[in-house]
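Q: What changes when nicotinamide-adenine-dinucleotide is included in the input?
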Amino acid sequence: MGISVGLVGLGAFGSAFAPLFKSHPLVDRIALCDMEPDRLEKWANRESFQDKLDRNAVFDDFDDICGADLDALVVITQPFFHAAQAAQAMESGKHVYSAVPIVSLPDGDEILYWCDKLIETSRRTGHYYMLGETTYYRPQAMYCRRRAAEGAFGRFVYAEGEYFHDVDHGLREVKSRREGSKSGKRWVELAKEKYSGVVSGPMHYPTHSTSGPVCVMKAHAKKVSAFAYYSSTGEPWHGIDAANETALFEMSNGAHVRICEYREIGHRSREIFRVYGNQGSFENDTWQDKYDLTDLSEGEMRDALPEEVTDAFSVEHYGGVDVATLSDQEREDFLGGHGGSHAYLVHEFVTAVAEERQPAINIWEAVRYMVMGVMAHKSALKGGELLEVPDFGDAPR
Ligand SMILES: NC(=O)c1ccc[n+]([C@@H]2O[C@H](COP(=O)([O-])OP(=O)(O)OC[C@H]3O[C@@H](n4cnc5c(N)ncnc54)[C@H](O)[C@@H]3O)[C@@H](O)[C@H]2O)c1
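A: The predicted holo structure follows.
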């Protein structure tokens, strides 16, 4: 039996996901929600949405969509709203998918509070939480998880991950869009008072860099030492942040992990990771052991999606063309951005809800990505002091 899904947040990123959620074969019914009327109308009026959308299921208020009869909500709002909205969604009887990160706030202790709160809420209500971490479904991550399951890495030795995204590479526009909408302006007003004097940093948005090593090694961080780099122009990014932060972790499996979150760097942008074991290693789309090296294509690294799912996504994407006539490249384009991860994220969440099981990136997994960043930033504020990283445990089986 299919499920019903409410899509909350139809801004830039939500718009990339709306057609995928709508067209997934296991989704029978959708609802839409955004406070901006033009964003809402754009999707509410889309011809291909009419078969699964009732006009009464179009909302401009989050409280109202929480009261609607739906199995799940997909929350793709600004990063400072995620945690409170995810908790409210679960309290209102719905499974929830949230864009990354769990939440990004200037105050690390408040982020830790929300990590704990979301675990408690998911456990008590029995509703699933899934983090939409794109790196988890990059082809490189899928390949490494398969090799790790075979034991091909041997014992893990080292991993590194980074998210390089200079503020000049589109981030200023992103910030002004996220803070310029009705909801964004409200947040800016509130944050001005509440976080006055709090020093934040890019490690409060850490999941693209931490998720790769954690999901491949299935290990969590135990200790961290990190350093901050302050902007050479003196320009703050969010408030009075550090521009860049670099962290070194000792992991629960004994491996070491280096993570970089940089917002000032002369680089086009990068979000990827490398993992090394004592028997085999993965870096730059190559697998190697002590003797051989194999270059891999994205197609070779990806897991397969069910054919009926890829067909449904491509029909929505290409507006009804016969998918058999598409080239291999065209058949990959509908997978979406961030290494084609979007289609996989949608498929995993929808099937987890339909099959009544924890999704792959459940709240326990998501918390491990987030807590690494929070503790790294705390260490950086103390000049690299070695700090313990709390662990909130594994998802119940
Ligand atoms: N690689 C990735 O995983 C990746 C990439 C880009 C963005 N993101 C995440 O996606 C999220 C959205 O980013 P964006 O650039 O689309 O933001 P955006 O500002 O363009 O869109 C957010 C939308 O949410 C709506 N909204 C907020 N609160 C609401 C409420 N209470 N009720 C109804 N609507 C509400 C806003 O009106 C807005 O249209 C961010 O959290 C970001 O972190 C992730």
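Observations recorded in class: Residues 285 and 296 are 6 Å apart (CA to CA).
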